[in-house]
Specification:
Blueprint (H helix, E strand, L loop, with lengths): L8 E4 L3 H12 L4 E4 L7 H6 L2 E2 L3 H6 L3 E4 L4 H8 L10 E4 L5 H13 L3 E7 L12 E6 L1 H11 L5 E4 L6 H10 L2 H17 L8 H24 L9 H18 L7 H12 L10 H5 L4
Parallel strand pairs: 1-2, 1-4, 2-3, 4-5, 5-6, 7-8
Antiparallel strand pairs: 6-7
Helix pairs in contact: 4-5, 10-11
C-alpha cells in the first residue's frame, strides 16, 4: 500500500489508546470507522471526520482493516462475537494487553472465523501515538503486515514485524514491559524519601534520568552475558547488590517508608548466592529466574 493511499480502517474500542489510534488514522487521511460500547466516546472523533458505527457488525463490515484495542484478548473476542460472521477475509489487528497464551488463543479464534490476524503492541503512552520515535511491534500473518504496513506506520515510525508466530508481540510486550513497575516503584520510593525530608520529588528527576541512561548503556553488556552464559567478569556482582539491600532497610526505618516490596528482590539475591552466583555478574539472576522454586 502506498503511504499516500487512503485505506479505510475500523477501530474498535475508544479508551485512551484506542482513541489515540483512531485520531492518528483520521489525521493521516484514512477513512476511519469507530465503535465503542459507550457510544459517547466516539463524539470527538466524529467531529474530526470519523464515522461512528452503531454496532460492532457495522464497524467490522466497513473496512478491510480492523484494529481492535480493548483491554484483554477475552474482551476482544467477546466484543467481536456478534460480528464473527463478517470477519471472513478481513485483516484483524489486535492491540490489547495479555499473555502469549492469550495471543495464541486469539489467533485460533480469529482464524476460525476466517480473519487474517496480526497481533501487536504499542510501546508508548497514548499521547505518543503517531510520533516518529514510537515503537509498535507486530507478529503473526506477514502478508497482512506487508499489505498494510504503510497504514499501520501512521501509529508509530518505529514499526517492526517480529515474526510469524502469533504470540511474539505479546511475549516481547511482557518481556520488555516487565521493567516498568519495578523501575517506577523504585522512583516512587525515592520520591517518598525526599518528601520525608521536606524536599521536592521534582528535584531528583534530572538525576534519575541520568541513572536510567546508565542502565540503558549496560543492557547490551548484560544481554551478551546472558546469551553466552558467561557471568564471570562482573562490573557489579550479586553479592554487592545483596550487601546494598541492608541500606534500603535502613533508609526505610529512617524515613518511615514501607520497603517491604523489596523483600522478594532480596530473596532472589540470596537464592543466587546459594546457587553459587555470589561473585558473578548481577545478570546471573537470569539463571535463578529460569528455575522457579
Amino acid at each position: 500500500m502506498s503511504a499516500h493511499h487512503p485505506v479505510p480502517v475500523t477501530v474498535l474500542g475508544l479508551g485512551s489508546m484506542g482513541s489515540a489510534l483512531a485520531d492518528a488514522f483520521v489525521g493521516a487521511g484514512h477513512p476511519t470507522t469507530v465503535w465503542n460500547r459507550t457510544a459517547s466516546k466516539a463524539a470527538p472523533l466524529v467531529a474530526k471526520g470519523a464515522v461512528h458505527a452503531r454496532t460492532v457488525g457495522e464497524a467490522v463490515a466497513a473496512s478491510e482493516l480492523v484494529v481492535a484495542c480493548l483491554t484483554t484478548y477475552d474482551d476482544t473476542i467477546a466484543a467481536l462475537e456478534p460480528a464473527a460472521d463478517v470477519l471472513e477475509g478481513r485483516a484483524l489487528v489486535t492491540l490489547n494487553s495479555g499473555s502469549p497464551t492469550g495471543a495464541r488463543r486469539m489467533a485460533v479464534w480469529a482464524g476460525g472465523h476466517g480473519a487474517r490476524h496480526l497481533d501487536g503492541a504499542v510501546k508508548n503512552v497514548p499521547a505518543a501515538v503517531g510520533a516518529e520515535s514510537t515503537l509498535v511491534y507486530y507478529s503473526g500473518d506477514h502478508a497482512v503486515f506487508e499489505e498494510f504496513e504503510s497504514t499501520l506506520r501512521v501509529l508509530g515510525g518505529d514499526t517492526v514485524h517480529l515474526g510469524t508466530d502469533p504470540d511474539l508481540a505479546a511475549l516481547y510486550e511482557m518481556a520488555v514491559g516487565g521493567t516498568l513497575l519495578p523501575a517506577l516503584v523504585g522512583f516512587f520510593q525515592g520520591a517518598a524519601a525526599l518528601r520525608a525530608r521536606g524536599l521536592d520529588a521534582a528535584s531528583m528527576v534530572r538525576f534519575s534520568v541520568k541513572w536510567f541512561e546508565m542502565i540503558n548503556s549496560v543492557l547490551p553488556v548484560f544481554a551478551e552475558e546472558i546469551d553466552s552464559g558467561d557471568y564471570g567478569d562482573p562490573a557489579s556482582s550479586v553479592s554487592m547488590f545483596l550487601a546494598g539491600a541492608a541500606h534500603d532497610e535502613e533508609l526505610g526505618r529512617e524515613a518511615g517508608l514501607d520497603v517491604e516490596w523489596l523483600g522478594p528482590f532480596r530473596e532472589l539475591l540470596e537464592r543466587a548466592v546459594e546457587a553459587g552466583h555470589g561473585e558473578h555478574s548481577i545478570s546471573a539472576l537470569t539463571e535463578v529466574l529460569r528455575k522457579p522454586r
